[in-house]
Specification:
The chain has 402 residues and is α/β, with parallel strands linked by helices. The chain is built from 14 helices and twelve strands. The strands form three sheets. The chain has a seven-stranded mixed β-sheet with strand order 2-8-7-6-5-3-4, sandwiched between helices.
Length: 402
């Protein structure tokens, strides 16, 4: 069959445009020291979200092996609304809801899918949402997909938030405030009691992403909302399983009506293949071990406080961190890259966090602590940070124009 030369030529042009665009954007990222590469972590991992150390816990491995061995199938075979549902997931959702103190929960295959599915399902173009400027990309994208009206307020600036709530009145739609309970890049905590009172004063709902709090904060690790006694006053919470629970996926928690609504309207739930039934056992094991990990939670809080104090004593900027996530704000991209490179030579697995993940001029190291770390390790880490600063200052002095 002969091919039309004109069509073949047009396809070649379009392909060339796509390739050149990709090359140009990669070159631009490289020129700004923002080009990322994939590499396995080595040394003492300061990037890990394995906050309770369960990812390498032999009890988790035993639970998974037992579940696989007893499973009737090792694939879900479809979405949960078709052939992919198993009662193991219903039982897990009920158990998780009880843990965090709500009526119901629905499992999604990732935290990203949970936020995207929740927000795009419950919000309408006439709704008005007030979103913290430091919220995770999955929240940002979920809001965009919903096409709701959005007001971004400065990070945890409740004075600005209240002024915006007074100034902006919804025209018949819902109003909602969205925050993370522990923010993933700054490591600071949202004042949830103040936020719920402000929301109720102004006729707004509160939605909280608990990704970095579940397993770490609250009674039996049930999260910051449960710790504040607000589980029955927020519209929804999102809890990921790929961090402290050493699994994957996420739960959206709230009322039974919300669960039923999401089953019918959340596209990231409806059109995603479910995870295999045996995987519910991994999530359940992570939840079970996390609930019993009071000693690990206490140790994690203790070493995090120690590291923050030591870094601040050495004049490092740790932003407003008061959690197990301790950022060190370094400013420029090259500086952050140099610090990370030096720490790796000292046996610490660190990576630079750069724009657009964080605002321009706030490149940083995000030191993510786990319960398996010791105070002695952190003493060595602070010493390595001081060495990196001296080395970076020397580099800049040498390269400065004479």
């Amino acid at each position: 069959m002969l091919k039309n030369p004109r069509i073949v030529g047009e396809r070649a042009i379009h392909k060339r445009i796509a390739i050149e665009r990709i090359r140009a954007e990669l070159a631009e990222l490289g020129s700004r020291a923002q080009l990322r590469h994939l590499e396995a972590a080595s040394g003492i991992d300061l990037n890990s979200n394995d906050y309770l150390g369960l990812a390498s816990d032999p009890r988790m491995k035993d639970a998974i092996l037992l579940a696989v061995d007893s499973a009737s199938r090792v694939a879900s075979t479809g979405s949960r609304s078709l052939s992919g549902h198993d009662e193991a997931w219903t039982a897990l959702e009920m158990e998780f809801a009880k843990w965090v103190g709500v009526e119901a929960a629905l499992y999604f295959t990732s935290g990203y899918a949970a936020n995207m599915g929740l927000l795009s399902a419950i919000l309408r173009p006439e709704d008005l949402v007030f979103s913290d400027s430091a919220n995770h990309a999955s929240i940002v994208d979920g809001l965009r997909l919903s096409k709701c009206r959005r007001i971004i307020f400065p990070h945890l600036d409740l004075n600005v938030l209240e002024e915006e709530l007074r100034r902006n009145v919804s025209s018949g739609g819902m109003r909602a405030i969205i925050v993370e309970s522990i923010f993933s890049m700054d490591g600071d905590r949202a004042p949830l009691r103040d936020l719920i009172e402000m929301a109720e004063r102004h006729g707004a709902e509160l939605i909280v992403d608990e990704a970095h709090a579940i397993g770490v904060s609250g009674p039996e690790g049930g999260g910051c909302v449960a710790e504040a006694g607000l589980s029955d006053r927020v519209l929804a919470t999102v809890h990921t399983c790929g961090k402290a629970l050493a699994a994957a996926g996420a739960f959206v928690c709230g009322s039974e009506k919300l669960r039923q609504f999401l089953i019918n309207r959340a596209r990231t739930f409806i059109f995603s293949t479910g995870l295999p039934p045996y995987f519910a056992a991994q999530v359940a094991a992570g939840m079970r071990f996390a609930r019993a990990a009071d000693a690990e939670r206490a140790h994690l809080a203790e070493i995090a406080a120690f590291l923050r104090i030591e870094l601040r004593k050495n004049e490092f900027d740790t932003a407003g961190s008061d959690s197990h996530i301790v950022p060190v704000i370094l400013g420029g991209n090259e500086t952050a890259i140099n610090f990370a490179a030096h720490l790796r030579t000292c046996g610490f697995g660190a990576r630079a966090i750069r724009p657009p993940t964080v605002p321009a001029g706030s490149a940083r190291l995000r030191l993510s602590l786990t319960a398996k770390m010791t105070q002695e390790m952190l003493v060595e880490l602070v010493a390595a940070m001081n060495q990196a600063r001296e080395q970076n200052s020397f580099k800049r002095a040498v390269s400065a124009p004479r």
